[in-house]
Write a structure and sequence with these properties.
Helix content is 76%, strand content 0%. It is elongated and about 55 Å long. The chain has nine helices and no strands. With 194 residues, it is an all-alpha fold. Helix 1 crosses helix 2, helix 1 crosses helix 4 and helix 5 runs parallel beside helix 8.
Amino acid sequence: MNKSSPSARERIVAGAADMISRRGLNATSIREIAKHAGAPLGSTYHYFPEGKQQLATEAVRHTGEWTARSLHAELRAGPAAGLRAFLALWRKIVVDSDFRAGCPVLAVSIEESAADEMPAALAAAADVFATWESMLADSLREHGAEPDQATQLATLIVAAVEGTVAMCRAKRSTQPLDHTAEQLQPLILTAIKH
């Protein structure tokens, strides 16, 4: 399979991530995802026999891995570079979508589930957030931050950026990203100078 031509399954997963980032999980149907991805409805059920929850779980993981790859590349230059890349990634998404898309991981996280148990997509979202936090904390520690401070600052960064993306959509402005960057950058620099 040619890398430049994603498989039908990959297109469906990416389409689901995009639709969830725009409309949320509960407002997105399998039929709409298949249409958005340009895939037959039957192939959607072929690849995801467990239905919408399985597809949402894969969409969350897809977003998590895609973001982690970008973050990993930038964290080689340090946590400040990682933060800038994290913010730039989400800035591009909100601007390119004319403030209609956000983070599908956050979208899945904030929606009430129909079941009394923790849905697989919500568990996947928790794993994605934990991965991003871990990557940032590791970089902070590698650059001199105290272990507890690195862990707490990584949580703050992920929480701030995710919240900021939602604010950008609501305000139809990137100003929240600018404000967040201005406040988080000095915190990182202070943490790694110890």
